[in-house]
Design a protein that fits this description.
Keywords: Glycoprotein, Membrane, Transmembrane, Transmembrane helix. It is found in: Membrane. With 409 residues, the protein is mostly helical. The protein has a single domain, classed as Growth Hormone, Chain: A, CATH 1.20.1250. The chain is built from 16 helices and no strands. The longest helix is centred in the first third of the chain and has 36 residues.
């Protein structure tokens, strides 16, 4: 890429807005995704004291996704009422509240904030799509989508690195002797109360930084014009109009054709963000080589490398000139390979319980880490092309379009 093009891109105010948006999401999801790697294991410790039910982490995740699916229908009118930037900030504060709840765990508060987080996630991601669209053109859509996702997904590697440092330095919990040979049939993967408070204090503070970054986002001229139009309309009419427009767009041939694609991205995200790391922790054979907590950190590091690696390929090979269908085809092949490796490498019981059983082959740590990277890379292939497609094809209805993808995923 020519140096003068890079300089122009860097000085472009719309590109700077997208970069700032990505940085805000980086901090919020550095906190949220990092805690997602350990949430089930953290809550397992509170299960033993009777504070929460068994598998409360999975229950929390189910509540989040159920609330997220339903609340996506009301996200566009909320964004239209509050404005894009205010919606981003308000939703981000709910993430801070959810993380702060782990400083003093109560089951009712966990489930209540999980339901509220579903609404916040719907508003946050729909507002993100709208703000990204407001700052993009058909020519810059692919580049801006890649830039945003690169910033947002890099949080996984940074979060994994943070967890690795904490676990290695934690006295009496995880240290240099964690790389060991062992014949234990069960392993305590719970976290001490001190570790939980340290980790979630950090997560809460980092998420708050992300909210501050989002609050400083500059408004765009197109956004200001739309807000002036909103003020002229009656609230009771435009809310119904916004919801009705979601169904109208969803029934178009393009959206119907993409329904399966959107659903696939949701299944993929649920698997690699929650089920996959839990399966790694519950596979006892892995623990003859590394502490389960160290494995969590390694998993986060390799998973966070997928999107930045794809962005590097985009820049070096100028993939924005290649047909989107070819990039998607590569993503499909990589996803198939990753799922196949997980199937042959992870025991069937590992998503729910600790197990000493083997899979089709003897589980190997290096294969699991490769799976983490491949899952992240194929998710990046899907996400960049989907974002670019929606920005180009729905420039004036971006909130509704991004709402639909989140409903189906």
């Amino acid at each position: 890429m020519p140096s003068n093009f890079r300089l122009t891109c860097f000085l472009n105010p719309h590109t700077r807005n997208v970069l700032q948006l990505g940085i805000g999401f980086f901090f919020i999801f550095l906190a949220f995704n990092s805690q997602g790697f350990i949430e089930e294991s953290v809550l397992d410790g509170y299960t033993k004291t009777g504070q929460v039910d068994k598998h409360a982490g999975y229950t929390s995740l189910s509540i989040i996704y159920a609330s997220f699916t339903v609340c996506n229908f009301v996200a566009p009118p909320i964004i239209r009422l509050l404005g894009t930037r205010t919606s981003l900030v308000t939703a981000g504060l709910v993430y801070v509240l959810f993380l702060a709840g782990f400083l003093n765990v109560h089951q009712w508060f966990l489930y209540a904030t999980s339901a509220l987080l579903g609404l916040a996630a719907a508003v946050l991601w729909t507002a993100q799509g709208k703000y990204l669209t407001l700052n993009s053109t058909p020519q810059s859509a692919g580049r801006h989508s890649s830039l945003f996702l690169c910033c947002a997904q890099a949080c996984l590697s940074c979060g994994g690195l943070f967890l690795l440092i904490v676990f290695l330095l934690a006295p009496g919990d995880v240290n240099n002797n964690q790389i060991l040979q062992s014949n234990k049939t069960t392993t305590n993967t719970s976290f001490t109360s001190e570790n939980v408070k340290l980790l979630y204090s950090f997560f809460t503070g980092i998420a708050l930084i992300g909210v501050i970054v989002l609050s400083l986002l500059p408004p765009t001229q197109r956004n200001n014009c739309q807000q002036e139009q909103n003020k002229e309309e009656k609230e009771e009419t435009f809310i119904l109009t916004e919801i009705n427009s979601i169904f109208k767009i969803a029934k178009t041939p393009k959206m119907l054709a993409l329904a399966v694609v959107f659903a696939n991205t949701g299944i993929l995200l649920s698997f690699w963000s929650s089920i996959f790391p839990t399966s790694i922790i519950n596979t006892i054979i892995f623990q003859t080589q590394f502490s389960p907590k160290i494995l969590i950190a390694f998993n986060g590091i390799v998973k966070g490398a997928g999107q930045p690696f794809l962005s590097l390929i985009f820049e070096r090979l100028q993939l924005d000139k290649i047909k989107k269908s070819r990039i998607i085809f590569v993503g499909v092949l990589i996803q198939f390979l990753a799922i196949l490796l997980c199937f042959v490498n992870l025991p069937n019981e590992s998503p729910l319980n600790q197990t000493t059983n083997e899979a089709i082959i003897k589980p190997r740590v290096w294969i699991a880490l490769i799976c983490g990277f491949l899952l992240s890379f194929c998710d990046a292939c899907w996400s960049t092309q989907i974002f670019s497609f929606l920005i180009i094809n729905y420039p004036t209805q971006s909130a509704q379009a991004f709402c639909i993808i989140k409903i189906l995923s």
